[in-house]
Design a protein that fits this description.
mainly alpha; 94 residues; single chain
């Protein structure tokens, strides 16, 4: 009778370990299955945030997509550097 009680206790301990392992596997599986969903939600939130910046009342982003035809002023250094690259810096300085 003592042997059967010890065997039952051992089986109970083994089944508890087995159940714990199954529960751990299921929990980790559930956590990893949610990763693609979390990634999709994060991407959509980033898109919405970018759209909110465009529609913001206190911040504006302006992109100039035209050529006004007016040449920008060239600094003295930029002029000398351009002539240096073209190879006629001595003539320009003379």
């Amino acid at each position: 009778m003592l042997n059967s009680v010890t065997k039952n206790l051992e089986n109970k301990a083994k089944s508890a370990v087995f159940k714990d392992n199954i529960a751990k596997e299921q929990i980790s599986k559930i956590g990893s299955e949610k990763d693609p969903i979390k990634k999709t939600v994060k991407i959509s939130l980033e898109k919405k945030e970018k759209f909110r910046v465009i529609e913001s009342k206190n911040k504006r982003i302006v992109h100039f997509l035209f050529d006004s035809g007016v040449k920008s002023k060239e600094s003295d250094f930029a002029k000398k550097y351009r002539h240096f690259l073209e190879g006629d810096l001595d003539e320009f300085e003379a």
